[in-house]
Design goal:
Layout: H1 39-44, E1 60-64, E2 73-77, E3 86-90, H2 93-102, E4 108-111, H3 115-125, E5 129-133, H4 134-137, H5 142-155, E6 160-165, H6 172-182, E7 187-189, H7 193-205, H8 209-224, H9 230-239, H10 249-255, H11 260-269, H12 275-290, H13 298-304, H14 310-321, H15 325-331, H16 334-346, H17 350-353
Length: 360
């Protein structure tokens, strides 16, 4: 004879101990939650609460907490375009204080301790200028410094490099020769007040490669649409926004304070190209401009413009232009891509755009 015993599951007690090697912690942030973090909830140990105004991806406010749980500091992570007025430097300590005082307000300085960090700034942050100290360069390995400076000068021809001589002496001459061999063509005598005024004027004239493309594109399209309504001109200006350029139609609609479906339907009703196509070509224009720098790889450009991956960027170029990324880099500059944008997406629709109001 066989007996079956029924044990209800609610009566069982399962072990709640975590498995070895696994740490169970509440998730405070993940790539799937790209919104601002509520510091009050973080400090209390609760999950972050998203706010309607924080639904945009470009800015992530991450709060770092020490072991004791107290709130320390907030790190603001922005896109490369927000660093358009950053100047990277490699200076002595006295020169750092003097340049901060002399150029206060017009530029933000990222003071670095070696030339390799300066190169990383130019490659990843798109800094608009570099300031080097001749006195500081005289104290480092000249061979390595010259090699890095060559990469900087010939890999990023659009970035202005400026050398400072604050204490002229005989040991400056070998360093000046090194700078000349590396391709640096601007040297300023900073031992006099006039020299610092020259530094300020030179830096004020400098413009990052991407910011220059933005200004050129906005001015050219504004001339094409001189008779168009203000909200139509605003649409095209937002495509090439220098601060936080949109990467999706939803972000574009958010910038324009209109629903994405409404924006798309208004373009369709007037037989215009879709906002998605305008946005895709605007991003390709920026990509072509960035790829003019030999020191920037396709992977870096795709990450800068927030494509999902280099392969995603390659598929995007193939879909829009029928070219590989190698052919795109070879055949198109920023100016040439902008000219094609105006020729194919603006000029044929001038009559319609002159009366078009995409924002209602």
């Amino acid at each position: 004879m066989c007996f079956l015993w029924h044990c209800p599951s609610r009566g069982l007690r399962l072990s709640r101990r975590p498995r070895p090697g696994v740490t169970w912690q509440p998730a405070l942030w993940s790539p799937d939650f790209p919104r601002s973090v509520d510091s009050t909830n973080l400090a209390a140990g609760r999950a972050p609460v998203s706010r309607p105004s924080d639904r945009r991806h470009p800015t992530l406010n991450l709060t770092l907490l020490p072991d004791d749980g107290s709130l320390t500091r907030c790190v603001d992570i922005r896109r490369m375009n927000s660093n358009a007025n950053v100047v990277s430097t490699a200076l002595t300590e006295p020169e750092r204080h003097r340049i901060d005082a002399a150029v206060a307000g017009s530029s933000r300085f990222a003071h670095r301790n070696n030339i390799d960090e300066v190169l990383i700034d130019v490659r990843e942050r798109g800094t608009r200028a570099v300031v080097l100290s001749v006195g500081w360069l005289a104290t480092v390995d000249s061979t390595r410094a010259e090699s890095t400076l060559r990469k900087l000068q010939y890999g990023f021809p659009g970035t202005r490099t400026l050398a400072l001589v604050s204490e002229p002496s005989a040991r400056c001459w070998p360093t000046l020769l090194l700078l000349g061999r590396a391709g640096v063509r601007t040297v300023v005598d900073a031992s006099r007040p006039e020299g610092w005024r020259s530094v300020r004027s030179i830096l004020d004239e400098c413009e990052s490669h991407d910011a220059d493309m933005t200004r050129t594109a906005q001015q050219a399209i504004a001339e094409d649409l001189a008779r168009a309504p203000a909200d139509c001109r605003r649409f095209f200006a937002t495509l090439f926004a220098n601060t936080v350029p949109p990467v999706t139609v939803s972000m574009l609609a958010h910038e324009l304070t209109v629903l994405p479906a409404t924006l798309i339907s208004r373009f369709a009703r007037h037989s215009l190209p879709s906002p998605k196509l305008y946005l895709a070509w605007a991003r390709l224009t920026r990509a072509a401009r960035l790829l003019e720098n030999p020191g920037l790889s396709v992977a870096t450009v795709s990450a800068t413009l927030e494509y999902s991956s280099p392969q995603g960027f390659s598929r995007h170029v193939k879909l829009q232009l029928g070219l590989s990324t190698t052919e795109f880099r070879r055949d198109y500059t920023g100016g040439k891509m902008l000219a094609r944008f105006r020729t194919e997406l603006v000029a044929p629709y001038i009559a319609t755009l002159s009366e078009f109001r995409p924002l209602g």
